[in-house]
Structure formats: structure tokens, C-alpha cells
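Let's practice the habit of predicting before peeking. Look at the sequence and jot down your guess about where helices and strands might fall. Then scroll down.
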Amino acid sequence: MAQSILGRVGQLVRANINAMLDSAEDPEKMLDQLIRDFTSNISEAEQAVAQTVGNLRLLEEDHREALKARDEWGDKARAASRKADEQRSQGNSAEAERFDELAKIALRRQISFESQITTFAGQIEQQTTFTTQLKDGLNKLRERREELVRKRDELVSRAKMARAQSQVQEAVRNVSVMDPSSELNRFEERIRREEAMARGMQEVAASSLEDQFADLQSSEEELEVEARLAALKQG
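Done guessing? Here is the structure:
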């Protein structure tokens, strides 16, 4: 049971990591949640390991009780055998037989407890190995949690730097796609057209003024011609 829970802890941790990475959550929140998950799952694993250790201690108690019972029934068998010998030496065969039977019963009990002792010893050996493996696995989970706690600030900082670098690269890529030189060329061309328009308006204004002066000069010449003609006619 405990071993399966330790395995499930590992699966949950891996699943949580993958889910958080896939959802692209805030790195700080992600790591804090991961630490909480580690703590919760380790607590569950600790309870399971504690139960396994408790079962081992029960086996050890049963083993000690069996050893004690084996010795007690051995003592009873020897006492009954001695009593039978005493009764036989006194010529009391019936009592001797009765005590011999009691000795046999005690020996059967002793053999039964010896069998239990052998069984308990094998179970204790297996359970001890199993418990040691579970403790080692639990300690590794604790170490990983502590390592995660220690590296949390470092990982958060690295994640923020990576995000900043990505934003810079995205900005550079957008600038490259936009091609600012072409935008400047378009703006320059617009200014040139406006400048040309201004020059054209100046030329139009100047041409109109010259025409007015030309008309004025033409009128003065016509008046001079008329005056000279009139003088000729009078002379």
C-alpha cells in the first residue's frame, strides 16, 4: 500500500508539473503550487509509511511473544516430564502416564510456537527490507521538495528573464517585419510632394503678378501711341 502511494505521489507530481507548464501559468504561482502539492502528497505518503512501520512493530511484538511462549511451554514440558519420572519411580504408573501426556501437549504447543517464530522471522525480514526502501523513497521526496524550495527564487528569476528575452525578440522581429526604412521613404516622398506643391503655388502667384504688370505697361504704350498720333494730325 505504502509503495503504491509513493508511486502515486511521483505520478501526481509529474502530472502537476506537466499541467502547469502546458498552461503557461505565472512561474512564481506555479512553483508555489508545486511546493504545496509536494507537501500534501508527502504528508499522505508519511502516513502510509508510518502504517507500514507500525505493522512491522506488530510483527516484532508477535515474534517476541512467540519466543516467550515457546520457552514457557518448553519449561512446562520439562516440568511435566520430571513429574512423570517421579511418579514412575514411586510406582505410580497411571500418574506417570498422565504427566507424560501433559508433557507431550506442552511439546506440541512448543513446536507450534516454533513454527510461528520461523514464519514471523521471515515476515519481519521482508517487512524490514520493504520499510527501509519506503523510508529511502520518502526521504528522497523530502529532499526534492527542499531542493525545490531552495531553487524557487532562482527558477522564478530565470523564468522572468526568459520571458523578458522573448518579449525583446518579439519586438525585434516585429520591427524587422515592419521595415522602418520603407516607412521613412514614404514619409519623405510625402514631404517632397508638399514642397513641390508649395513651389508650384509660388510660381502661379508670381506669373499672375507679371501678367498684371504687363497689362499695365501695354496700356501706357497705347496711350503714348494715341498722343503721338494726335500730335501728327495737328502739325
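How did you do? Residues 93-178 form the longest helix (86 residues).
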